[in-house]
């Protein structure tokens, strides 16, 4: 991996799933990109698998309610105008649109109930 340009600023750690990875930028504008402005302040790194300098990966960002650092994985957070961690979404589920409520309900159903 060539980290010559933009060496890591630190290590990003998700508070929910323990994902950790070095990040090379934090903010709404990844370095070396011309027209990209992200919708949120986030932790990201240059895509190590792409030779294109403009390619980058978003690792995660801060929950807008509890300020926990969470990754963008579907099990940890969702983006609905802002970033929310899933525990906060559950606490405020009625303030989210039906579509998101339905998605979350689906996830709950994946927990198997044993009947023995
Ligand atoms: Zn996570
Ligand atoms: Zn939260």
Structural class: alpha+beta
Radius of gyration: 17 Å
Number of DSSP-assigned strands: 8
Span between termini: 51 Å
Describe the sheet with the most strands.
4 strands, antiparallel
**Hetero ligands:** zinc ion
Strand portion: 25-35%
Can you tell me the residue ranges where pLDDT is under 50 for at least 5 consecutive residues? none
Strand order of the largest sheet: 3-4-5-6
Q: What fraction, in percent, of the residue positions are helical?
A: 10-25%
Name the shape in a single word: elongated
Number of helices: 2
Domain Cysteine-rich DPF motif: 12-104
InterPro entries: CDPF1 (IPR042426), CDPF1_dom (IPR018785)
Protein name: Cysteine-rich DPF motif domain-containing protein 1
Pfam family, one: C6_DPF
Could you describe the 3D structure shown?
There is one protein chain. With 116 residues, the protein is α+β, with helices and mostly antiparallel strands. It has one domain. 16% of the residues lie in helices and 29% in strands. The strands form three sheets. The chain has a four-stranded antiparallel beta sheet, with no helix packed on it. Strands 1-2 form a two-stranded antiparallel sheet. Strands 7-8 form a two-stranded antiparallel ribbon. The radius of gyration is 17 Å and the shape is elongated. The mean pLDDT is 88. It binds zinc ion (ZN) (2 copies). The site of one zinc ion has 8 residues, from strand 6. It comes from Triplophysa rosa (Cave loach). Pfam families: C6_DPF (PF10170). This is Cysteine-rich DPF motif domain-containing protein 1.
């Amino acid at each position: 991996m060539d980290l010559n340009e933009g060496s890591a600023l630190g290590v990003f750690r998700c508070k929910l799933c323990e994902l950790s990875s070095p990040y090379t930028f934090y903010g709404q504008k990844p370095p070396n990109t011309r027209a990209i402005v992200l919708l949120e302040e986030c932790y990201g790194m240059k895509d190590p698998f792409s030779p294109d300098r403009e390619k980058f990966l978003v690792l995660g960002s801060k929950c807008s309610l509890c300020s926990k650092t969470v990754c963008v994985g579907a099990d940890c957070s969702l983006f609905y105008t802002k970033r929310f961690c899933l525990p906060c979404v559950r606490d405020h589920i009625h303030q989210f649109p039906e579509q998101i409520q339905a998605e979350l309900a689906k996830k709950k159903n994946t927990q198997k109930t044993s009947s023995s």
